Amino acid sequence: MSFTNIYRKEFKWNLRSFIIWTSIFVAFSFMYIPLTDQLIQQSGAMLKFIEKMPKLLLQMFSFEPELLTRPEGLFGSEGMSFVYILSAVFASILAGSMFSKEFEQKTIEYLLVKPSSRLTVFLSKLSVMFSFIILLTGIFTLFEVKLFDVFVHQEYSTKILYAFGLYALTVQVFFAAVATLVSVIVQKSSLNTSISIGLIIFMYFGDSLGRSFENLEWMSIISIFRYIPLIDTIKNNQIMLGNALTIMLISAIFLFAGAWVFKKTDIKL
């Protein structure tokens, strides 16, 4: 079976899931961005309420009182926190569907007995996975920018909106890479999902705990969310491009490891 045939099979197999997830991201943007002007007009009352909230809770969801008076700050400090989590979950589930489900349902045997190398099979699946990741990120970023253009009438930084898209892509690439490695090792979709979701929760909330408590700082250091900070990006009007690229490079290492394991591991009967 050729690269193209496997690509088409995987693309068709996972298209429905991709459409559902894309709809969730677009619906989230439609739910939040059109209300931005109204929320900013009520920011005074909102700030009084936020000032009474625990500092740890504010950090967990990237709340920064001074940013809630800026359109991109409002979306970035609240909306993007959920986009981070959604991105990580989507990528982990997608990778599991590409690899661990194939092992679990024994359909991987059909592919591996065909006259194609294991590397061809792996790269075909990887290409589909990253096609969906890039498409979803592109659609989300396009809707994000266009919705701001239509519904937000106050001054905002388009540069920061594109930074949000880059960060969502970075999160998806990282967790897709990790889930790919986990999938080819454990070969169980339920176990892959459990490990991936656990890692997402650990990294996301570990970053907040590490920045709040000195003795837990190590949790923040090993979290990717520390290096693509929403608050700092908005406050400094600076895209953490170098950090994002470094995270993607680390992700490539996980993918190389996954390819090696996929090539060497025997199929469990």
Distance between the termini: 22 Å
Helix-strand makeup class: mainly alpha
What does the main sheet amount to?
Answer: none
The general outline is globular
Helical content band = over 70%
As residue ranges, the low-confidence spans are none
The secondary-structure element order is HHHHHHHHHHHHH
User: What is the number of helices?
Assistant: 13
Mean pLDDT: 84
Oligomeric state, counting identical vs distinct chains: single chain
* Total strands: 0
Tell me the number of structural domains: 1
Round the Cα radius of gyration to an integer and report it. 20 Å
**Proportion of residues in extended strands:** under 5%
Explain how this protein is built.
The chain is mainly α. It contains 13 helices and no strands. It has helices at residues 3-32, 36-41, 43-50, 55-60, 71-98, 100-104, 108-112, 118-151, 158-186, 189-212, 217-221, 230-236, 241-264. It is globular, with a radius of gyration of 20 Å.
